[in-house]
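Changelog excerpt

This revision adds worked examples to the README so contributors can see how folded entries look when concatenated. The first example is reproduced verbatim below.
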Amino acid sequence: MAQLEQAAAGAAAIRIRLDDALAARGMTLTELSQRVGITVVNLSVLKNGRARAIRFSTLAALCAELDCQPGDLLSYEPGGAEG
């Protein structure tokens, strides 16, 4: 059970910086959705940190469209599980 709790805490330490990438490019979530073929709802779940997983193909599509690296969209912030 301790491993499961550690995994959950680790997942909570992952931060999504999709807002920053969109703002830097002057792009809306709706526009990104249309360009990559992912629903606005699914992108919103990701953007708001409620997603528990992301497919590499989704991450690759976002990086291709936003001309960025995965590390530009994801960060690990240990101890930041709350918030």
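The second example, added in the same revision:
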Amino acid sequence: MTARPSNREIVVRALRLQCPRCGEGAVFARWWTYTEYKECPRCALPYDPRGESLAFMYLSTAFITGLFFIVLLTLPPQNLVRYRFGFIGAALAAYVSTLPVRKSLAIALNYFNSAERSP
């Protein structure tokens, strides 16, 4: 049996979109179409057996929304039309570009809290 990865290793693997346990299997078959594996192709770790990563996804989406709300409050627009297009474009880009990383972090967090990982 291999040694358990450290907390740092789990986070680094999540940021690289890899399995939190072995670090070799991919989380996504194709991340740009958001096609994810049900389990690690290398070590067979089930990525989201109970669907718990959705809660993290909702919380992280709410966090991003909160950040954009703070921007709305602190940076008043000079040109409203340009501000709206820029703001909506930036928000959509933030949501879409961070989706695979947020999902991978959710899987890593589930693995971190799993019974398999506890001593």
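Reviewer comment on example two: The longest strand covers residues 28-30. The mean pLDDT is 86.
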